[in-house]
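Changelog note: in this version the structure field was regenerated for every chain. One regenerated record is shown below for reference.
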Amino acid sequence: MKNKRSRPFRRINSTRSHSDNFNNGNNGARVKGSLSTILEKYKTLAKDASTIGDHIGAENYLQHAEHFGRIINERNERNENFQLNINKKLESDDNAAELLEKDESASESAIKESNTAEI
């Protein structure tokens, strides 16, 4: 028989969900959307904070905006590099196919020449 005291205390009729524990502090003030939307939102928040004289808050929002700007730039660079690699691979595949066709046609002509020389 197990000892019931070894288990931690747990409420049976708890009405709160576990996700509520993390939502108490910010009251849903999280900025949501695409990266460009978030960037623009933080720039707007920085401008608004600066307008009302909250220079520390404005600097905080500008730092967030700069962070998302860097993320956008990194993703754009990664996408450009990926596209360049795909294009290079396609070009090399096309060149390889052309070389293979030339090699096959040269082999065929060499075979024909050797067959005519034997006759």
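Spot check on this record: The first helix runs from residue 35 to 51. Confidence is low (pLDDT under 50) at residues 19-25.
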